[in-house]
Amino acid sequence: MVIDQKLAHERILYEQFIQSVAHNHSLAQRELYPTKIDLDPSDYLIVQDIKEELLGLGIDISDLGSNTVVVNSCPAGLHYSNHQDVLEMLIEEYKETRQKIKGSATMTLAAALARSGALEYGRPLQYSEMQRLVDELFACENPNYSPGGKKIIIIHSLEEIEKLFD
Length: 166
Fold this sequence. Notes:
alpha+beta
């Protein structure tokens, strides 16, 4: 069995975000120093359109006008050092993801947020982290596919694996 760690983490985060919205219990972490961000006019309009959905996911944004917003909180458990990069990445992911995932804005944003916050490819994991990732993945409603529909798990027979080394 081969598990794509990034896609697995993406699925886990996505389902956590959807559950928090469904139970009206976002896990937001207030920022000690809120971040002021100047956006492109088109991105600013997108943020205004999805502001309520962002709040449901734990991202509290205040509007300062003139294409400027302030990030007051982010989802707990996701550690970003640069909120501007995260918001811009989230907007880009939202633009891309809404084309792939047909559903509500909340589902699209949850998928985009999960995609941007998931483990990076090639990041080494400790055994305990791998075990937790696998346990959390198999506790998901749909552990086989990412929110974007990509396979997370591939099972190879012993014969297939042996052929790879011939």
